[in-house]
Write a structure and sequence with these properties.
single chain, about 150 residues, mainly alpha, 8 helices
Length: about 150
């Protein structure tokens, strides 16, 4: 229910998602349930973005990414996806350098190694890096050229 409401009526979905997450955390502790908890947290983070609570979403996405790394390792597709969401939140918070460093040093190498250069996730990460480079108010001419090269 919360997931269905998340996009159309996020203000109503938020308490549903929060309650669902609290229940799952309270009554489960297995590795499979940790993965389920991460999915619920990701849905909650998306909803927080939709209601304009970017700072809370960023904090939650940091935790999700750290937990994915601990649970699955840096090269797992779920970890790469969580890192991509974190990078987007970092950009929204104006933390351009941290976002670019995460994509360049961790996410793109892992995605290329694990998924391949031409997979959607890998290409999306490259696009996210280009957008981050262009969006940074302190971007240099070299940053713009790099972004243009990435997008070609």
């Amino acid at each position: 229910l919360g997931g269905a409401l998340r996009a159309s009526r996020p203000e109503e979905a938020l308490p549903v998602l929060e309650a669902n997450l609290a229940l799952v955390k309270r009554y489960s502790d297995s590795k499979a349930n940790r993965r389920n908890t991460l999915v619920l947290q990701a849905n909650l983070a998306n909803c927080l973005v939709n209601v304009g609570r970017q700072d809370e979403a960023l904090a939650l996405r940091r935790g999700i990414h750290a937990e994915c790394v601990a649970l699955n390792g840096v090269s797992h597709e779920a970890t790469i996806s969580a890192g991509s969401n974190l990078a987007i939140s970092l950009d929204c918070a104006g933390l351009w350098d941290e976002s670019q460093s995460l994509i360049r040093n961790q996410l793109l190498p892992a995605a290329r190694r694990t998924l391949g250069h031409d997979k959607h996730t890998t290409l999306s990460l490259s696009q996210n890096l280009a957008v981050s480079l262009q969006g940074n108010p302190k971007c240099t001419r070299e940053d713009l050229l790099e972004a243009e090269t990435i997008m070609q």
